[in-house]
Fold this sequence. Notes:
The chain is an alpha/beta fold. The protein has 17 helices and 13 strands. The chain has helices spanning 7-23, 25-34, 45-51, 82-86, 92-110, 152-158, 192-211, 223-234, 264-278, 288-297, 305-316, 328-334, 341-353, 363-370, 400-409, 428-431, 435-448, and strands at 57-62, 67-74, 113-115, 121-123, 129-133, 162-165, 176-177, 216-221, 242-248, 282-283, 339-340, 387-391, 413-418. Helix 7 (192-211) crosses helix 8. The chain is globular.
Amino acid sequence: MAVLPKVLATVFIAFCCYRISQADEDRTSRIRRGFRIHPHTHMTTAEMIRARGYPAEVHHVVTDDGYILEVHRIPLSSRRSSEHNLNLTYSVQNEVKRSLELQLLNTSARTDHEKSPAGEITHRGDPRVVFILHCFLCSSADFVMNDHDQALAFVMSDEGYDVWLGNMRGNIYGRRHSKFSPSDTQFWEFSIDTSARYDLPAMLQYVRTQTGVTQLSYIGHSMGNMLFFATMSIHPHINSWVRVMAGMGPVAYMYHGHAQLGFLAPVTDKLERSLAKKGQLEFMAPTNTTAMMVSGLCSDMIFIRPICQLILDFIAGPSSRNVDPTYLPVIAAHTPAGSSFRIFAHLLQFVRDRTFQAYDWGPTKNREVYGSSRPTRLELSKVTVPVAGFWSSSDVLADPRDVARTLREVSNLVLNHQVQHDSFNHMDFLWGENARSLVYKHIIDFFNQYY
Length: 451
């Protein structure tokens, strides 16, 4: 959902970059040697985590329908590697303060489990585990593409959370299946309710099993919220697995912010079915050559880098330049991360029908799948987890009117928080240098009420 309003322009840009790179590999190689880009630009999520001096684990979760999803973890650690200290940008005074805070935090974490006289482990309190899920065409990388004191995953880790970063089927970390390959049409035949039925339950259960907790905290961004809401509607019992939920740009409804795209829904439905027959449902697939070329356009040695910033504004909405320009190549190399065209078609159905529902196959097949001519409605009233919504009046992708209706229908809304910044846009929740003070701090305060 992060790039939905301008997705056609983004497709065109990515396609052009791909064609350029394919047509002249030698020239591409020469250009690449001339780029000065951020060292994290072509790293994986796990590599970026380790580059910041945090421990990183890579896990693979198998869904009930055979998709293999790569999940990234920043486990609690009593210390960071010396490499982390080389990356610090704080002043000496602030870093000493942070070191003391971390020592206290880690001391507290180590005393959460004590041995009884009989030698058995007793729990003084559940460990703090947080699961974070990304937006449409995004990935786990979006939560680590910033300085260690600004990126959400690192902020939560520093607060004493065992951090797990999920990935949906179809993105760069969700391109494996026990039976199909990405070259098979069947691999891409999934919609939003399919991912809600299988992906999120599998990842949440895996995290609970690995950590031993009965409940975890949840943070979603954009479609990461939509998937959460849909999952709770399809599997109401999973509400008991989640202690508390924070939604950044939380929308289930989309018709206010994207009303101009509603007329595309019938055309997109037909196109999706045509692409399915041709076996071409993969949508905005990431490639190394495209990532290299697009990130190169955002490097500080290219005179057109201002155009890179304009493209970002075009995709995410007007910005006060909350994103550090040095990270633009990193962002460009990791976003878009890929998905299925059926997901895009499903989003446009939400716009057209002004409702939150399962995929609309048309009256005939709907009767086969749902027992009705209309798709099954996804009910927000079944979300009973304590929910906090974080939204911005200048977010053009999660329109405040759509956010308001979404949060109004959630059963247990505890906090409705408007970001206090005049130009805080949809992607600033992920990459903004001021996101920690404007959003993350309030999420942590909200979570603290439930531990």
